[in-house]
Structures
1.
Amino acid sequence: QVQLVESGGGLVQAGESLRLSCVTSGRTFSTYSMGWFRQAPGKEREFVAAISGNGDSVNYANSVRGRFAISRDNAKNTVYLQMNSLKPEDTALYYCATDLRYNIWTGYGADYWGKGTLVTVSS
């Protein structure tokens, strides 16, 4: 049984930074891709960032590229999302996910999800 537990969300002002963490259990962490998604009120869940099992490949949504950075520490079974220069439009529930997949029609998806951590950015 795969478990993903996010932490690090909170309330910050625009321009500030926040780092999210996601601890994974129940599998060999380094084997699997990891990613972050987010969902704002009234909107569909969207892809934010992804990282390969060994950390040698990353990908970002255009809306966060240059501001956010995904990383992983396989010794700690943890993936991080460093969020800099936060904007009010970044406000959302952020989900950690694993076993990412990509479909040319629907974009990124995942097989396992955490419960989410809330990030609120005030102007």
2.
Amino acid sequence: QVQLVESGGGLVQTGGSLRLSCAASERSFSSYAMGWFRQAPGKEREFVAAISWRGWSRVYADSVKVRFTISRDNAKNTMYLQMNSLKPEDTGVYYCAGSRQPVRTWSPRYDVDYWGKGTLVTVSA
């Protein structure tokens, strides 16, 4: 069983930055595409970003393009999400995800094979 563990969430002011990390328990998982979803109270879980297993392809939600950067270090079995210029609407629980699907705007219901437990990001006004 592959386990994904997020870290790096916290409280930050508008305009600030955070870097999220997601560590995979098995080295073989580096061959999967990985990505991030987020969910705010009262809203559906939404796609944020994804990266192919080699890191050559990246896809971002329109709401985070330019501000967020996804990357991965397969030698460390770790994926990152650098979040800059944070806004209150970025607040939510951020979930690490692994998928056997090609990189695209994934559906949280149909495209994700593994989930982390989430890390909370709160952006104050």
